């Protein structure tokens, strides 16, 4: 039987990506295309040239440089044309990486005189439909509420999202709301009425939760109100003395899946090493987890790479990897009829891979 090394095997896995921010997922190639388009529009400037230099450093660039460039990206993606281009490229890259189902998330932007929030979302959804016709991938959208922008902005994003629930063309594509942004800004407690309203409308909720130490009150409030369908990161859930066990019980009891983004957590130093990542605790408890990239462009990673890192550091078997793919299917924000189709497809592909992971075995020599 044809055998594969671990990295090839991870690439072949039919994967499901549930935590991918559109703007943070841009490949270096896409960023360079955007910078060049901007240069054509404005002429060459010092800052554009310095961003090009930073991007061309590839994985060698430091995290501070990455954030600077990706912050600047917001000013490069200020037209429907740019939004279509980045959405197309990101979907194609995930499809090439063996991702069969992708939930993209993005904060709709309003730049006066350039683009409205509605035009932004329309451009993303139109491109998703087009790409699903040609790439072997299903794509759905979560709109992001940025906790740093205040509740007024969040209410306006939610009322926009509602317009797509019964939309003639886009119905069924916008499946949930993501809560993200700088965890040191704003307080999730202020967003609870918005999250309650979103749930009432039928949206699923993915919340970046417990990303910093000082999060006890808001984590309590979100969990107690049953306002999270998937937890993003949850890096400090178990590290809070006295609260860790309480949170763990609640999350286990309610089967709330956790989105695991290993490279992102290590690079932002919210975990000290891959081996010490909380993946180990939750997977030991057989809790549903979804391996994700977060921002594949910023952290120079792929979903294949994230599976590979998990497998290497936690000594995962072929069976464990298959289980992770299927956990991610169950955690997807799809209605059950569509989830059945996805599960069937993933299971068929996994069964063809069974037994093909090359496992090095130590030879033992018998002393005669
Ligand atoms: Zn995130």
TrEMBL record:
<keyword id="KW-0378">Hydrolase</keyword>
<dbReference type="Pfam" id="PF00962">
    <property type="entry name" value="A_deaminase"/>
</dbReference>
<keyword id="KW-0862">Zinc</keyword>
<dbReference type="InterPro" id="IPR006330">
    <property type="entry name" value="Ado/ade_deaminase"/>
</dbReference>
<dbReference type="GO" id="GO:0004000">
    <property type="term" value="F:adenosine deaminase activity"/>
</dbReference>
<comment type="similarity">
    <text>Belongs to the metallo-dependent hydrolases superfamily. Adenosine and AMP deaminases family.</text>
</comment>
<protein>
    <recommendedName>
        <fullName>Adenosine deaminase domain-containing protein</fullName>
    </recommendedName>
</protein>
<keyword id="KW-0479">Metal-binding</keyword>
<dbReference type="InterPro" id="IPR001365">
    <property type="entry name" value="A_deaminase_dom"/>
</dbReference>
<dbReference type="GO" id="GO:0046103">
    <property type="term" value="P:inosine biosynthetic process"/>
</dbReference>
<dbReference type="InterPro" id="IPR032466">
    <property type="entry name" value="Metal_Hydrolase"/>
</dbReference>
<keyword id="KW-0546">Nucleotide metabolism</keyword>
<feature type="domain" description="Adenosine deaminase">
    <location>
        <begin position="14"/>
        <end position="348"/>
    </location>
</feature>
<dbReference type="GO" id="GO:0006154">
    <property type="term" value="P:adenosine catabolic process"/>
</dbReference>
<dbReference type="GO" id="GO:0009117">
    <property type="term" value="P:nucleotide metabolic process"/>
</dbReference>
<dbReference type="GO" id="GO:0046872">
    <property type="term" value="F:metal ion binding"/>
</dbReference>
């Amino acid at each position: 039987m044809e055998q594969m090394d671990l990295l090839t095997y991870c690439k072949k896995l039919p994967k499901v990506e549930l935590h991918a921010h559109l703007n943070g997922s841009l490949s270096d190639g896409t960023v360079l295309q955007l910078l060049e388009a901007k240069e054509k529009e404005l002429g060459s400037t010092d800052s554009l040239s310095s961003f090009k230099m930073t991007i061309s450093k590839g994985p060698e660039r430091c995290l501070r440089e990455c954030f600077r460039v990706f912050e600047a990206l917001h000013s490069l993606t200020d037209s429907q044309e740019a939004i279509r281009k980045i959405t197309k490229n990101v979907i194609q890259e995930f499809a090439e990486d063996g991702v069969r189902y992708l939930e993209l998330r993005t904060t709709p932007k309003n730049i006066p005189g350039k683009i409205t929030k509605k035009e932004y979302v329309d451009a993303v959804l139109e491109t998703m439909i087009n790409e699903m016709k040609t790439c072997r991938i299903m794509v759905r959208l979560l709109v992001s509420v940025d906790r740093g922008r205040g509740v007024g902005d969040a209410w306006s994003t939610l009322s926009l999202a509602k317009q797509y629930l019964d939309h003639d063309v886009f119905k069924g594509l916008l499946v949930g709301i993501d809560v993200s942004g700088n965890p040191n800004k704003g307080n999730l407690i202020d967003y609870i009425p918005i999250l309650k309203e979103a749930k009432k409308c039928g949206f699923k909720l993915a919340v970046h939760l417990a990303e910093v130490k000082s999060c006890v009150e808001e984590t309590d409030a979100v969990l107690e109100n049953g306002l999270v369908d998937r937890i993003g990161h949850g890096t400090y859930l178990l590290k809070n003395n006295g609260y860790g066990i309480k949170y763990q019980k609640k999350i286990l009891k309610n089967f709330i899946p956790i989105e695991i983004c290993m490279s992102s957590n290590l690079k932002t130093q919210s975990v000290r090493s891959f081996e010490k990542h909380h993946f180990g605790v939750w997977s030991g408890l057989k809790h549903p987890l979804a391996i994700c990239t977060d921002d594949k462009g910023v952290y120079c990673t792929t979903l294949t790479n994230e599976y590979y890192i998990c497998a290497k550091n936690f000594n995962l078997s072929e069976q464990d990897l298959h289980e992770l793919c299927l956990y991610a299917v169950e955690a997807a924000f799809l209605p059950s009829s569509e989830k059945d189709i996805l599960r069937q497809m993933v299971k068929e592909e996994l069964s063809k891979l069974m037994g093909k992971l090359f496992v090095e075995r130590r030879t033992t020599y018998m002393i005669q």
